[in-house]
Amino acid sequence: MAASIIPFSITHEPIFPKFSKSPFTRNHKPTKLVTRNNSSSIGELVSEQNQQHHHAQRNSTYKPKLEEHLPRLPEEWREIQGENEWAGLLEPMDPLLRTELIRYGEMAQACYDAFDFDPFSKYCGSCRFTRRNFFSSLGMAHHGYTITRYLYATANINLPNFFKQSRWPKMWSKNANWAGYVAVSDDATAKKIGRRDITIAWRGTVTRLEWVADLMDFLKPISWNKIPCPDPTVKVESGFLELYTDKEESCGYCKYSAREQILTEVKRLLEVYKMEEVSITITGHSLGSALAILSAYDIVETGVNVTGDCRGVGVTVLSFSGPRVGNVRFKERLERLGVKVLRVVNVHDVVPKTPGFVFNEQVPAMVMKVAEGLPWSYSHVGVELALDHKKSPFLNPNADPVSAHNLEALLHLIDGYHGKGQRFVLATGRDPALVNKGCDFLKDHYLVPPCWRQDENKGMIRSNDGRWVQPERPKLDDHPEDMHHHLTQLGLANSYHI
Amino acid sequence: MAASIIPFSITHEPIFPKFSKSPFTRNHKPTKLVTRNNSSSIGELVSEQNQQHHHAQRNSTYKPKLEEHLPRLPEEWREIQGENEWAGLLEPMDPLLRTELIRYGEMAQACYDAFDFDPFSKYCGSCRFTRRNFFSSLGMAHHGYTITRYLYATANINLPNFFKQSRWPKMWSKNANWAGYVAVSDDATAKKIGRRDITIAWRGTVTRLEWVADLMDFLKPISWNKIPCPDPTVKVESGFLELYTDKEESCGYCKYSAREQILTEVKRLLEVYKMEEVSITITGHSLGSALAILSAYDIVETGVNVTGDCRGVGVTVLSFSGPRVGNVRFKERLERLGVKVLRVVNVHDVVPKTPGFVFNEQVPAMVMKVAEGLPWSYSHVGVELALDHKKSPFLNPNADPVSAHNLEALLHLIDGYHGKGQRFVLATGRDPALVNKGCDFLKDHYLVPPCWRQDENKGMIRSNDGRWVQPERPKLDDHPEDMHHHLTQLGLANSYHI
């Protein structure tokens, strides 16, 4: 009964190439691939990558090499964190910087993967995991970080597309949305990366781009919302400012503003690790990037990064697909304070072009001088790493605008970027299938299902009596007992009515 | 740090009522609920059911009672299988018949739940489970049946919305689609239900209604496709006929037609169980109902249900949301052959109204007489159980037409139906949350996510090297070795070129 059928046991065909050795270490110029660039079409490249890949399959030696360049980190982490404004690290792309961008990008991506945005869930708007199980639940235990605090924002402000609310009448909180976390590298990781790293990751908006339209596109002096600033002409987008400073005292989760949560936690951690070398790395995608830049500014302007022995701990923002945050005075103030910002963007993404479509850092200085007084004259900050999804042979060049804003896709672009004009070649072995987790961006012939990341039965489980129910979740931590103590020390307690 | 938040530990609120004792057994008239019918709005009913339910929660005594009436089955199964055309069992609804309709309806539903309809899957169009793991994978091991054979149809015929094809270039089969199964009650179940039951379940079309438009709406003499029939005026819809009789000899899975698969398997099983009392129950939803009726006709017309000692094994069709299949001659022929058909429909579903929108069993006999010669003059068969989703307080009365055709919703309607004009009250404790498995039909305030049945990460898993891949599946059985032997015995071998 043999038949001319194709058997079920076809080997899965992964979709990235194999290189026995990474052609891009800091000391090896990618000459071979550069010369190839002119002679290969993208189609040929893909087919060639597939062949290389088949070879890899047979030898079964292929391993992701995200950690390959990490041994350099204890020596070079200051440079990687932007001490010299990333000079010489972007063109060509430094493989250690690439590794670090992907590592922190995954910390930002975790905010999406952990967020419950199903309005039919009674925990909608919260984090799906307790902070102790956060990284292990996401398969990220190897990152070697411990979350010390979850961050919450009040949903009372006018950014409806940032906040998700449950349809359940009895919710975990009517006012709060989970907004990210503060994590610290554990001892083993601290040793591996050369310092104790405090990472703050801010959640962005989920999937759609409507939140851009929610922005009031109105610059407001930063000091109006009680963030100290010696210069009243330093202004930021009022929506970001409110998101960062608003609170709702009737709610256990957002009775403190995001600002108060961040400042007290950074202060507390710097006391805990006062005998160590420490870095503060703030990351976020999209709206999360705006919060990252704003909180970085605040930490340094407020001085909570200054330790007892008067060392200033460096603050770095690794921003992904972020919008503009403030005016040119804000940019200058950030620079004077020494906050380092590396902004990774996809040039086809509309979000980094907002707010400030008309007046921004790209118009001539003379025009900007005139426009400076206008409340909608924005400026990007820091150093930009501009990537182009049309350079990746894996991606559909004509995907929808939401895909161009996708964080997983941006991490894929970082993985294949080697410098301007260089050929796109995946360097770390990061799985391109991840691109389609939450969008439809990979070319169809790679046969990765679009938007494939989903929970079994939308999280419903069968109870003992056979009924399908939403399982209970353990209560999330709200805020530590010593908040008031830290707020008092920061001189912020008076704004809080106990 | 206590706060006025709502804790995470709110108890889940299930959505069906609690009755300490079912008010509807065969000997108890539902008088209490009937009188209530006039005084309660649906809103009051729901609120009342919720209260009853809260009471149930506290006492935690509620158990589904699908099996409550089964002990009557060894005595009464012939009547339940339609020996007397279900006279007296529908008004009021007999609780044992309800139980049996749900039991077989779940066997039909299993065909959807097991079908791989994701075009990004390389096993698209196949069954997700091997036949030995079928019921256990679906949490239906308690049904007590063993699948003896999978059924396949060729996708070569012109019903594009019935067939699903993978986008993968190397598929498990280019021509075949999994179309259902043949199962036999195991020894324990056979004892419990009073006979050895052969169940044939046909898969219908997935989710959408486009397949109705695919039908050519053209009646064709049944004998033209080599199904024996003494009367050339007996006609059925040509699309159903082709689906049932076509084959593709180059494909291991559909080198035999669905017809050949069914007839040989029934014949084989009747030989295996020739010393026992046997029933044949054929079920299917939607297009699967058409195949159920056609195959029931064929089994009896061909005589494969006649055992060695000349007993004719009864053949019953339990049809769900089925379209018309043939003309009035086909109906009469089915009746003469003694095939029993119970058709359960939702009166708001368009599918049972097709084909034959114009000329059907509902026009006056005189008109029908004139129209009889037309090739689009259809007639329903058997006994109809007409349900109305607007009677269920759980369902959104204005849901889309696809919901009105949904099988899980129909099983919910069966569960709450007690007779014409009777109040809708769930009888077996079957979970109404199941309604939303594949549609958005429950009222929003029940907070069951719409279309909640889904695989984790669309079936993608992480391989040992960290990449996301589609796992391999074991090869599905094609056809037994002794097919040709059985075909020869049936006189069908000449149509098969070995």
Automatic annotation (TrEMBL), chains A, B:
What does the UniProt entry say about where the protein is found? Plastid, Chloroplast
Task: Please indicate if the UniProt record lists ATP-binding as a keyword.
Answer: no
Annotated GO biological processes are: lipid catabolic process
Q: Which domain of life is it from?
A: Eukaryota
Its main subcellular localisation, reduced to a broad class, is plastid
Citing just one GO molecular function, the answer is:
phospholipase A1 activity
Ranges for the Fungal lipase-type domain?
A: 200-357
> What does the UniProt keyword field contain?
Chloroplast, Hydrolase, Lipid degradation, Lipid metabolism, Plastid, Transit peptide
User: What is a single cellular component term in the Gene Ontology annotation?
Assistant: chloroplast
The UniProt entry's sequence similarity note says:
Belongs to the AB hydrolase superfamily. Lipase family.
This protein's name: Fungal lipase-type domain-containing protein
Task: Please name the taxonomic classification of the source.
Answer: Eukaryota, Viridiplantae, Streptophyta, Embryophyta, Tracheophyta
